Amino acid sequence: MNTEIKFETKKAGENIVVIEFVLAREISPEELRNINPPDPIENKFADKLVILSGRGPIWLYGFLIHFYHPVKAIAVFDPRLDGAVVVESHSKEYEVGQVVKI
Amino acid sequence: MNTEIKFETKKAGENIVVIEFVLAREISPEELRNINPPDPIENKFADKLVILSGRGPIWLYGFLIHFYHPVKAIAVFDPRLDGAVVVESHSKEYEVGQVVKI
After folding, report:
1. What is the C-alpha to C-alpha distance for residues A74 and B59, in angstroms, rounded to an integer?
2. Contacting residues of B for A74, CB less than 8 Å apart
3. For residue A25, with 0-12 CB atoms within 10 Å meaning exposed, 13-18 middle and 19 or more buried, which class applies?
4. DSSP string, B28-41
5. Are B85 and A21 in contact (CB under 8 A)?
6. pLDDT by residue for chain B (102 residues), tens digit each?
7. Considering its fold, how many domains does chain A have in total?
8. pTM of the model
9. ipTM
């Protein structure tokens, strides 16, 4: 169960939550079965924009994007843009392709 | 509408479809609104495993993973693993974290 991946949840304004992950070492695919990202319902941020941030493989992001599917909108932080790109939105508040600065 | 992104659909066995994208130049976030990936219903591969492959930003993958949400399962190709990692599955046939060789 110890997957050497740490998640940190940070509020960025009233309606934005940043989920930042840090890998202590390289993650292997089967570890996706045991990771435990902060639950959006339990932690009451399902009604917010979730920004994913961290250095890791694209498939880890893929897993997280599916995991956070129930939230209002999901964005992926891109350091080159100094902001997060909305990739999925269930709300008129956020549009796919929008860059959210944090 | 011309976003300089090309998608190629390849069959890999009976139950696997590889969606490979090629960017002619760097994509900008707002272009996510105009890209047109192969539709899984129209192209009759909603009942298959979809493997995403290509060099591009993580948020493009984020968009595609949401786009292909209706299919049986989604995997992300990782050249370092010489295979694709299942990130989302709605079938017992594929398990999250499984590496599918193609």
Report:
1. 10
2. 62, 66
3. exposed
4. -GGGGGT--PPPTT
5. no
6. 456 899 999 999 899 999 999 999 999 999 999 999 999 999 999 999 999 999 999 999 999 999 999 999 999 999 999 999 999 999 999 999 999 998
7. 1
8. 0.95
9. 0.94
Helix (H, G, I), strand (E, B) or coil at B48: coil
A72 in a structural domain: yes
B35 within domain boundaries: no
Which residue range forms the structural domain that includes residue B84?
Answer: 5-24+40-101
Beta strands (DSSP E) in chain B are 5-11, 16-23, 49-53, 73-78, 83-89, 99-100
Give B 65-94 residues with CB within 8 A of chain A: 65-66, 69, 74-76, 78, 81, 85-88
Asked if B85 and A57 come within 8 Å (Cβ–Cβ), the reply is yes
